[in-house]
Amino acid sequence: xxxxxxxxxxxxxxxxxxxxxxxxxxxxxxxxxxxxxxxxxxxxxxxxxxxxxxxxxxxxxxxxxxxxxxxxxxxxxxxxxxxxxxxxxxxxxxxxxxxxxxxxxxxxxxxxxxxxxxxxxxxxxxxxxxxxxxxxxxxxxxxxxxxxxxxxxxxxxxxxxxxxxxxxxxxxxxxxxxxxxxxxxxxxxxxxxxxxxxxxxxxxxxxxxxxxxxxxxxxxxxxxxxxxxxxxxxxxxxxxxxxxxxxxxxxxxxxxxxxxxxxxxxxxxxxxxxxxxxxxxxxxxxxxxxxxxxxxxxxxxxxxxxxxxxxxxxxxxxxxxxxxxxxxxxxxxxxxxxxxxxxxxxxxxxxxxxxxxxxxxxxxxxxxxxxxxxxxxxxxxxxxxxxxxxxxxxxxxxxxxxxxxx
Amino acid sequence: xxxxxxxxxxxxxxxxxxxxxxxxxxxxxxxxxxxxxxxxxxxxxxxxxxxxxxxxxxxxxxxxxxxxxxxxxxxxxxxxxxxxxxxxxxxxxxxxxxxxxxxxxxxxxxxxxxxxxxxxxxxxxxxxxxxxxxxxxxxxxxxxxxxxxxxxxxxxxxxxxxxxxxxxxxxxxxxxxxxxxxxxxxxxxxxxxxxxxxxxxxxxxxxxxxxxxxxxxxxxxxxxxxxxxxxxxxxxxxxxxxxxxxxxxxxxxxxxxxxxxxxxxxxxxxxxxxxxxxxxxxxxxxxxxxxxxxxxxxxxxxxxxxxxxxxxxxxxxxxxxxxxxxxxxxxxxxxxxxxxxxxxxxxxxxxxxxxxxxxxxxxxxxxxxxxxxxxxxxxxxxxxxxxxxxxxxxxxxxxxxxxxxx
Lengths: 406, 406
Prior knowledge:
The structure is a homodimer. Chain A is mainly α. Chain A is built from 18 helices and no strands. Chain A has a single domain, classed as Up-down Bundle (Na+/H+ antiporter like fold), CATH 1.20.1530. The first copy, chain A, has helices at residues 9-32, 37-49, 66-86, 89-94, 96-121, 127-137, 142-151, 158-187, 192-226, 232-250, 255-265, 280-301, 311-329, 343-349, 354-366, 372-387, 389-398, 402-405. Chain A is globular and about 65 Å long. Residues 1-5 of chain A have low confidence and may be disordered. The interface between A and B is large, with 68 and 68 residues.
């Protein structure tokens, strides 16, 4: 009799049924074509979100349900936590220099060629708008790449570790860049102390999470394991994951960076006091099966295909997309490696701009240096740089000689 | 850098950390005192929700976060689905007559003595208000009892099956009672056709879910199993669970009744095409570990201890609480049983009024027959009938001779 007081859980139930069902159908179609599941989920989301084009919009409200949006946010947090659990902190540090170089190149090159190319493609642009377009292209959205690596069981490979490490560093660099360009656009100058504070907090968080966390994690997990309750191991992991994501946000970083860092810190061995033969990944996996597809279906649903309808915007966007891809591809060739490495995988792994690029564009719009036309162009660039890497990475990874891959 | 656009996931992360942590601490304390986990979770919730009494209200917003409320709703849906999975449809039907008698007695007796007792306790009450107080006492909230049975590994016992079956029937009876008393209060009469439609829809849903569902479930699960994707078994169960809960709401029943019915319909054997040695319960359990405590912590947080401060209201409420308990206890003695049965467990299993009693009271308030004083009394009755059964059931179940229990 709960519907007498208009139970708010009901629209969420409906949305979850639609989302989980389309995710699985999309995933099945993608598998059939030998593609990663995530591509199927994104495509299913695009179809669901654009049924309005067929005058059928029964599902469009799903993407705007507040709870579904938050579940989608929890989904990508759980995904990065899971990937963090699968990665070992020492192996990440072993490729630290490469990750750092990739992150730097992934910011400098897209910014430089984004700045010049946008001036050539759109000759009427103001100087500060060109700076902003360059800044937008520096963004890296690691969710898509992390998921492709997971779908293809590739997270433990050197290429994957370099990209994941670069994504963490990139998030810090992104904070600094945004503070600089927003400062320049608004006041014409940059407050060095402000930049110093932002950088210190962000770097401090990562350092503390990685080094001190390594000590505390073991003790805390052990303390938790003393409470002999059903579900204690999973609850412990969720508390760590959500708390890490929360703390990252408090220092200005993305929640997913915090979840990834905490996942890195937690090693299988910490969970031994639970005396269970399952690994931490076994416990978190069902939560991921539930929440992660919500993120990718929603990402797909946010693609508005009508943005492709304006020819002059489309042409500019396609040109800038090429610039955006080339700018990040270079990342793969900016470091030396003692062992054989597939540099194209690293390059394409850095290509997705995702929601991070849109956040930059939204900030630019709010301070008046990104107009409606530039915003529409950015949306297309974000869509294409998000959708192109999954099939390309799939091809690159699967066409590697087997002994190098598995 | 997501906090630049005020990431709405952040307060949810904070709330989840607080909730999961207090649930586990509460559960550990309850275990120490040999009580079911749920009692610890409820108590932890009451403490969290009433820190304002100590002038500390940092956590009170958690209970009002929209997403947390919905996650709590999903939690109790998953709990009843899980209990449904553990119950077998044939075993439920085997105690169908007893369940039906318990449900009928659980409505008639509390209504009759609630009506008379409220007239004696509060002599100034209008006739229709007495009717409403009687109606409020007919409510049964099965979530608490289901969780106590689960915590004590008691769901498969005959007593548990009778109570769970009675709860389903009670939800249908509740719909009819509310339609009658609300109709009488508002128009002075009852539309028989309206009652007939409500009953037909609700009974039709349960019959279809239980009988036709038994056929469709097998075929649908088999079809789903053809999509060989990671997480397919869990997704299939979640889709069934959420869809069942959604459909129940569409015919006017509680979402938890739908989730329970669908859980009943799904049998282990249906999942054999997935060729996995795990049972459906194994797959849903991690989701339950995540979501179910949210429901019980929030239930605790909604207890406002200041309602106990008014002596005249408190006395009336204590008297009505005794009436409410006696009215449901009688359920345990209203049927014959070929085998030995613990009738007190059934009686106390029916005692919790939970949110269902509050829904009745809220409807009564909205049509003006339940005033602020009656509402405050109802809140206390709901709190006490919700908190008393867990320790009593724990005592009754654990003091049974071992051979009858395990």
